[in-house]
Amino acid sequence: MRTIITTALLIFIIGNIGAVDTGTYQFIDLLRTMPAPEGPSVFENGVVFTASSSHQRVGISFAHEGFAKVHWFQQLMVPRDHAELVTEGGRRSRRTVDPYMDSGIMFHVERIPPGIRYLDYRLVIGGLWTVDPLNPVTVTSPAGIALSRLRLPAEAQVAAAMPPGIFQFNFRAAPGETVTVAGSFNNWDPFMYELREVSPGFYTLSLPLAPGRFQYVFFHRGEPIPDPSNARRLYSRDGRVVSEAFVH
Fold first, then answer.
1. Are the CB atoms for 208 and 166 separated by under 8 Å?
2. How far is CA 107 from the centre of its chain?
3. pLDDT tens across 132-143, in order?
4. Dihedral (C-alpha) 60, 62, 68, 74: value to the nearest 10 degrees?
5. Residue 170 neighbours by CB distance under 10 Å
6. Phi and psi of 204, rounded to 5°?
7. 179 φ, ψ to 5°?
8. Calpha distance 166→174 (Å, rounded)
């Protein structure tokens, strides 16, 4: 029950950010499992940046926008333990207790712009421009300014170019293999859709799919394999483990 409450709360707080699909279980789980702020990480077609909420205010500005705009981080709030909200007799305490508390994390989610290999940025912490203390990779701009840099994996670059209604299937294996995908969208036919190897060991396929949730597995060397990069999994009617995703 507590998991349901926590999930519902996080959807309420972050579900309308608009950069990526932050209402998915995968994004919620990503934030919930962070014990503390950490370096930037790629999620679907966006990047999640975090900072300590001990800072009064944190902002981020990007090179691909010409550093013309500052995006301010949002504070991640989580439910308090139920024991803090009730008395020993099981009645709600008379003292005013905020049912939500600071998680210690502030965050911003930035959509990956198409056509770039690196995401260069700077932070504003305490009113001062600085590099990201959680990202050890820095570069110097032509103007001599230190910037933080995140190299984008091939999967993220491909996903950034996907329009709404298109789902990108990605799989990694040894070069020169045959990888296919099947799911509820094609009656689980393992031969209909084959992924294309766009770089050594990286296979991808874009499919137009109807809006809503769907289930799928990859087939590699004749074996059905749930998507290793997708934490959302279900059991099919015949007891197999399958991946689940969502199309807008």
1. yes
2. 12
3. 999 999 999 988
4. -30
5. 23
6. -145, 155
7. -130, 130
8. 26
At 132, the amino acid letter reads D
Cα distance from N-terminal residue to C-terminal residue, the chain? 28
Contact of 34 with 104, CB cutoff 8 Å: no
Q: What is the mean pLDDT of residues 2-30?
A: 46
DSSP per-residue codes, 159-228? HHTPPTTEEEEEEE-STT--EEEEETTTTT-TTSEE-EEEETTEEEEEEE--SEEEEEEEEETTEEE--T
* Poorest-pLDDT segment among 30-39, 172-181, 234-243: 30-39
Amino acid, res. 217:
V
Read off the DSSP letter of residue 51: E
Q: DSSP state, 113?
A: P
What 53-59 contacts at long range (C-beta under 8 Å, 24+ apart), as own/partner pairs, is 53/102, 53/103, 53/104, 53/105, 53/106, 54/104, 55/106, 55/125, 55/126, 56/126, 57/124, 57/125, 57/126, 57/127, 58/106, 58/123, 58/124, 58/125, 59/123, 59/124
Taking residue 248's Cβ as centre, other Cβ atoms within 10 Å add up to: 9
pTM above 0.90, yes or no: no
97 — phi, psi (to 5°)?
Answer: -125, 120
- How does the average pLDDT of the chain come out, rounded? 79
User: Using CA atoms, how far apart are residues 172 and 57, in angstroms rounded to an integer?
Assistant: 39
Under 8 Å between Cβ of 215 and 244 = yes
